[in-house]
């Protein structure tokens, strides 16, 4: 026990003699620095002497570990790391996006490198800055918020020459967010084109849906809707649905500009298809040409849409009024043996009537007749006021044997009603714009004798026939619009819609107006079942020049006949 260190104050030594242990407690309160006084006689004879030594303190060989940081301290450090990582990631992504935009806008000098093909784009093309922190890996393995994913994944990968990211450590152990991979795997959609989205292509039609010519607008739209509906049911064009937006101009040129602005500015259509009328086209055409918009398949045969060389953005399906009236005059002179001076023209007093009358003049001149002797009978647009025309016809000295008519259906029916009994045996021929079905219905209301023998030239085959195209049209119309009767105007809309769709298919998925025009001009000998091939070219923007002849019978049905 000689090496035992000094015991602490207040603690009794169990090995001390009894006298020491029994000492008064006051001695135990003595300062620890003072050693107790022990006499030799205090020990028994058989007990060895006890030597007491003061304990010496020693410096520990290993310093004690500092206390762990508190939870609040750890949370503060973690939040700073997360904030730093977020700032660095966002800044890096913004640098990539801005560099890509500058490159696409042509602000970089020198030759532009070829873009990386879509098939070779991978997640590694995204510049990711990795921080040597466990927190970074934890965050990388969790899905990024939608807003961050949208920033870090630009629509298209920037070319390698425009943005050259420095070599970065491999981060294969930390999978990239799914949203980034999906964005890079999607093919670029190209610059935005008005009226075209990933899901649809939007077209507009300005036509009369009110007034005396409203049936023409309704039937033209019906035919286009039938064509578009059939195409959409089959998957659309390159994955996009075709949509038609209508605006009513009432067949009045004063309303046409507002209707066109509604389609272009408010509805943001890609192009115009199936507009109805010549006087309205005189207003619509300069507007669309200024916009460099497609003006396709208008329901008019006016010459202003058939310039030489043709306007780049104007395409026609149908034969012109000049071709229709020429066919009618040729038939009257060569088949029915009517002299040119015995032919009169009943026409609307506007651009529509002027186009038809010009066609008659051209045909008479080709037959060596005198155009100055041609009698023209006029009426005002959107009216049925034909009394003045009837009075002129009765006052004319040369007997009239045939009348080439360039009206709408109601004015035509009224004129026939007032002249049938005055001039028995007179031949009435109408151009296709009259509205064949509507005209037949109006005449049958007057009686079979007013309908029988009336001729209408057509720009589509007879709807009573069994050609492939006509049968497809009838089946589609019955399926999509049950209860609607087949009509020549809606059939023309159906043909024009399918012809436009063929051009869209050839233009490819990244379509715009210029690509569509180029695709249409490459169309050669396309026959959807008309029996006559259709062709476009750089100097030919009218697909068909064919004119069919039809004649009403006593039951109000059109029967086809050969006009040559």
Write the layout of secondary structure elements.
Layout: H1 18-21, H2 25-28, H3 71-104, H4 134-140, H5 146-152, H6 178-185, E1 200-207, H7 214-233, E2 241-248, H8 253-266, E3 271-273, H9 281-291, E4 294-296, E5 314-315, H10 321-335, E6 343-348, H11 351-366, E7 375-379, H12 387-395, E8 402-406, H13 409-419, E9 427-430, H14 436-446, H15 448-451, E10 455-458, H16 468-480, H17 488-507, H18 513-521, E11 548-552, E12 558-561
Parallel strand pairs: 1-2, 1-3, 3-4, 4-5, 6-7, 6-8, 8-9, 9-10
Antiparallel strand pairs: 10-11, 11-12
Helix pairs in contact: 7-16, 7-17, 8-9, 10-11, 13-14, 17-18
Adjacency order of strands in the biggest sheet:
7-6-8-9-10-11-12
Q: DSSP strand (E) fraction? A: 5-15%
Radius of gyration: 47 Å
Regarding CATH, which class of the largest domain?
Alpha Beta
Largest sheet: 7 strands, mixed
Structural class: alpha/beta
Counting DSSP H or I runs of 4 or more residues, the number of helices is: 18
CATH topology of the largest domain: Rossmann fold
Report how far apart the termini are.
145 Å
Note poorly predicted spans: 1-6, 28-36, 40-45, 70-76, 106-188
The 3D shape can be described as elongated
User: From the 3D coordinates, which CATH architecture of the largest domain would you assign?
Assistant: 3-Layer(aba) Sandwich
Task: Write down the secondary-structure element order.
Answer: HHHHHHEHEHEHEEHEHEHEHEHHEHHHEE
